[in-house]
Design a protein that fits this description.
This protein is mainly alpha-helical. It has helices at residues 8-28, 34-41, 50-70, 82-98, 103-112, 116-139.
């Protein structure tokens, strides 16, 4: 059984996400959307500075590594096939490029700027996520 999560962890994480998104916007004049930064880091976006994306992604990975080293290492258990995870990841990547953004770009930065387009995008991907959980857990007999 999992131990209860101290509410300070999510609060601290949310504050750090908000501060980093605000800092990125103030320092670079750009939205800190992870899918766009990843595409820039991979050289898939014209005009986007590749080093900026590489640095941001490196910071995400370093922050995760530091958290696991000094705070808490999460207990992870993969309960599905690796090929299914890869296909799911590719579909999410396709969807974020097709929708011109992801949860960080639309959900964090776009909603904070009161962007109507981000409100619609966030509503759609949260609704699809809820529907996916309902279908897989209740209609297809998955873990509930």
């Amino acid at each position: 059984m999992l131990e209860p999560l101290n509410p300070l962890w999510p609060l601290g994480g949310g504050l750090l996400i908000g501060l980093s998104a605000a800092g990125y916007l103030l320092m670079n004049g750009r939205i800190a959307g992870i899918s766009g930064l990843m595409a820039g880091a991979m050289g898939l976006t014209r005009g986007a500075p590749r080093t900026l994306g590489l640095g941001f992604i490196a910071g995400l990975l370093a922050g995760s590594a530091l958290t696991m080293a000094f705070v808490r290492r999460p207990d992870l258990e993969i309960t599905t096939s690796v090929p299914l995870l890869i296909v799911g990841g590719l579909l999410v990547g396709f969807g974020t490029r097709w929708g011109s953004g992801c949860t960080s770009g639309h959900g964090v930065c776009g909603l904070a700027r009161l962007s109507p387009r981000s409100l619609v995008a966030t509503g759609v991907f949260m609704g699809v996520a809820a529907l996916t959980v309902f279908v897989t857990r209740h209609l297809m007999g998955g873990q509930g």
